[in-house]
Input
Amino acid sequence: MKATKKDILKWLKEKRDTDMLIDREWFVQESEEGDAIFAKMDALPFGIGVRFIDSYAELILYTNFETATLSKDERLEIYRKLLILNDENHMVKATITGRNDEIALRTDLDLKSLSREEFNDAIVSIVIGAVSFQEILGIKGEDEEEEAERIIEFVLDALQTKSEKEVVDMLVEKTGMKREDAEEIVKKVKKDWRPKPPEGMYR
Output
């Protein structure tokens, strides 16, 4: 059954008692034209958008990294790296958007077969992919490294039902990330990451 904009709005707004990222507190709004959805959550520095085009949709992650004010040489170096990354990643593509040339990541969603769980996995993958892209591009602010680890920990915390191999497989499939890179990211975080104890424990 084909997923619709109404379905995705419902998935982002409804809250279920699960650890999935989609079941966190999202602030959601529709575009004036009605062909897109924008969503943001306090725990993540990234906003996402879903743009609907016929039988598929684009999932877009806005990195908040603008390149318009950079020098010509800085922009050329970043754009060169983005082209290389786009060639290496077949699922998630980096683009430049908006008046300030903000870097965004995009991946296509097939609405004809999209489920709630697959939409959740796509969000998880593109968020982790954004952290990976930032590290490769070297666009790190003062607290970027700590923030990157916090983001990945937060996302993995929403994946307690998946094994490490399942998370790696998902990243490879959803983002086109190289398996060794996915394994390194997951291993780096999971080395110190532990599932949260059941609610009420240790009180």
In short: DSSP finds six helices and six strands in the chain.
